[in-house]
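Bumping with the actual sequence this time:
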Amino acid sequence: MEDRRINRRIRMVSHLEVMVKGNGTHINAFSTNLSRNGLGFCTGKEIMANQEVDIRMYFENPSKQKVMETIPCRIQWVKQISRIYEAGAQFLTIDLKDYPVLSQHVHQLEP
C-alpha cells in the first residue's frame, strides 16, 4: 500500500499530556509517531477534532533525565477504536527553534 503522506514519520512512543485550550481539560496520552509537521497519539479519553490544544511532550535526554516541552497544536483527526482514541495533531508553528528537544528529534527526519 502506498504511503501518501507528505512528511516522513518516525515511530516514537512517549508520554504526553493534551491540554484543551479554553476549558482546562488535561488528557493523558502516548505518542505513536512524529513528523516535521505534527504527531500521532493514542488516549483513553474522548477528544474532538478541529480544536486547538497544547501538547506537553516528555523526552529523555542523554543523561536519562526527563525533559518537557509544550507545543501548540490543532487536532486534525480523531478515530475511535473500541475505547481508545487515535488522533493526529498538527504543530501550529513551523519554526521549531523554540522547541530544541523536539527539534532534535525532527532533525532525524531530514532527507
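The C-alpha cells above came from a reply further down the thread. The CA atoms of residues 62 and 101 lie 11 Å apart.
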